[in-house]
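Below is our example:
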Amino acid sequence: MKVTILGCGPSYGMPSLTRGFGPSDPNEPKNVRTRSDILIEDKGVGILIDTGPEIREQLLRAGTPKIHAILYTHAHYDHMGGAQDLRNVAIEKNEVLDIYGTPKDMLALRRQMPYVFEPSHQKTLSLHYIKPYKSFKIKHLEIIPIFQHHGESSSIGYRIGDFAYCTDVKKIDPEGWKLLKGVKTWVLGCVTTRVNAKHVHLPEALKWVKKLKPERTYLTHMGSKMDYKELKKTLPKGVEPCYDGMVIKI
C-alpha cells in the first residue's frame, strides 16, 4: 500500500490570506501546506480521503491517479470543497465514483453542491452511507470507520489494515481506541502546540502516540505554529511531520 499526503495544512492553508506563515519559516518549502487530504493506492485501487479545495492541483501533482472511491471525514469546506472536480473525473472516464460518508455529511454535501448530483450524473456518482465502527469493503480493502469528537461536531477516522488516518479529532472514545489497537502507521491531525477546542494539540497527541504505540506516526493538518524544521528537531523517534506530496509506503 502507498499513501500520498496530498495536503497537510489547516483549514486556512499555509500561507493564509491573513496570517501568512505566522511564526513558521516562510523560506522552508515544506511549510507551504494545502488543505488536508490523502490518496491511498493498493493493488490498482485508488481511494481518496477527503477532497479539499486544492484537490485538482494536488492530484495533478500526484500524476492524476485513478480514483475508485472517496471517503469523507466530515462536512467542513476544507475537507469537501473540491468535490466538483472529482465529478468531472467520473464523467470523463464514464465510470462510477463511489462516495462514502455518514448520512449527515452526505446530506451536507448535497446541499453544498446540488448540481453535482443532478439526474444526468447519477450514473457516475454513487453515495454510500456509513456507520461508525461498522466495517465495509472497497474492492479487496476492508475499511473501519471510527467515530471522533471534533469540538461541538464530529468526524470519522478510518483504519485500513495496519494503517489509520485520524484528522480533525479532539477525543476518541474507548471503542475507537479498541479498533485502532495494532495500527503500525498512523497519520494524525495535530493543528497546533497549544490547547485547542476542536483539535488535539501537540503535547496531547504525543500522549496518544505513547498509548497506541504505532511503529510510525505522521502529523498532518498542521497550522502556522507547527514549523517543519523545528518539529523535525524536537519530535520523538517514530514521529515526524508530514509535508505536501510526501509518500508513505505501508
Notes: The chain has a mean pLDDT of 94.
